[in-house]
Amino acid sequence: MNTTGPAAYVQVTTALRKLALDEPWTTAGLLPAEPALMEKFQVSRGTLRRATDALVREGLLRPDRGRGTYVRRQAQLRALIKESVAAIAIPDSRSHLDVLRFVPDFAGSELTHDRVVEMDAYRDAQVVFIAPDNSLRGLIQRALHDGKLVVVPTYAMRRGMVLLDPARVPAEHREFAATLDGLERFGHSLSLDELRALERINLFVTGAVALTRSGVHIGSGDAYLDIEWGILSVLGLVDVSTPIVGIVHPVQLVDAQLLPTPLDITIDIIITTDETITASLHYPRPTGIAWAQLDEGRLQSIAYLRELAALTDQFSTERNPRPS
User: Fold this and answer.
1) Nearest to 235 by CA among 190, 278, 267, 275
2) Which option is the CATH number for 7-71: 4.10.230.10, 3.40.50.300, 1.20.120.1630, 1.10.10.10?
3) How many CB atoms lie within 10 A of CB 216?
4) CA distance 100 to 95
5) How far is Cα 148 from Cα 128, in angstroms, rounded to an integer?
6) CA-based radius of gyration for the chain
7) From residue 317, how far is each of 264, 297, 307, 323 by CA, in Å?
8) What is the pLDDT of residue 316?
9) Which of 24, 29, 154, 278 would be 159's cystine partner, CB 3.0–4.6 Å?
């Protein structure tokens, strides 16, 4: 490796990224120690750390003081599956084919909607939560046609969640109402009190960048789904008995050995165009908001979180524990 001049840092970053992406799933994901990597790449400590810091900012690596540097498994999987997902994705008007920034629609997604509609949990549901993923727009239309009340988050939760009431959405406008822009016109933006006053959510449906057969959900890395679930669980609208359905194209269903964190929601029922699968493992489900994981930007941009934080004081006490 040519390790002289400005190109050294770029070369090392590329090589380190490849090493991280090639890390076997059967290991803990711990990269070799700094001296071993310096010898492997024939670079100085400063150059190696610059490359490592770049991949930490990228989200692929996670430093653990005193233990070393680990590969972030979900980021690794997103990177490995990106080309396969892009090959089946329908381009998005905002993000084109950057499938790490949005959950894409795909040819045949209506077949997955058919499978959802056939579920007893769907037939019995009065209120359903459907994530605003491109692959779920058709399902939102179906739910409105079937007389369901549909709760859909707005983009990045900036304006909370919206209620789509079939009685208020004319049939000829339901296709548009299922889009992010259509939500703004035909949906009712729910205040925290209005959200709390809803009937229980009977079914929770989401798309994904990828799903494992054990039910681990891999999204775009922004963790909004976990925040949405946390808010709904705090308000008593969902709990451990609420069925969680994940919809993906078959290429998005992977066999990777990936464990969720205690903050991740996992999928009960996986639906593809080809099959309906009960997740092979059952993980404990989060029951509230992970206040300690929220940064100030999220708190300020999501009104529900600000209001709940003011009501409970949990954000300030958990992020800044009082001295004992």
Assistant:
1) 190
2) 1.10.10.10
3) 27
4) 9
5) 7
6) 21
7) 22, 17, 15, 10
8) 44
9) 154
